[in-house]
Amino acid sequence: MNKTLLVIDDDAAVRESLGEVLQLGGFEAAGAGSAEEAMAMLEYLQPAVVIVDYHLTGINGAEATRQIRARHPSIAVLAISAERQRRDELLDAGASAFLPKPIDAEVLITTASRIGQCRAGEASWSSRSG
Description:
Blueprint: E1 4-8, H1 12-24, E2 28-32, H2 35-45, E3 49-53, H3 61-71, E4 76-81, H4 87-92, E5 97-100, H5 105-119
Parallel strand pairs: 1-2, 1-3, 3-4, 4-5
């Protein structure tokens, strides 16, 4: 499985924190401060998973998810938000899974691994519960 991930969050501290956790889990993590920045990075980074927050500067995480899925259907999207009520909107936009903030490190690593494997055709996994 490709172990490259892209974290999209307009809060630099959150991007760095998630990136550090993911690196401890064996991933190579890059960060983007906006969906627009991330879209440019996707062309050369080719991550297995994109982790996207709902609240971003510019377009929101649901619209970012739609654009990522339309342009890069093989990339899994893990949506995150402090607002649990955004879950269905993000999943309907094409996210493979949703995690509420604050995020448990072990759950983040496990979920990123599972959805990355699913997109790579190595497993079947869905997160409509929770």
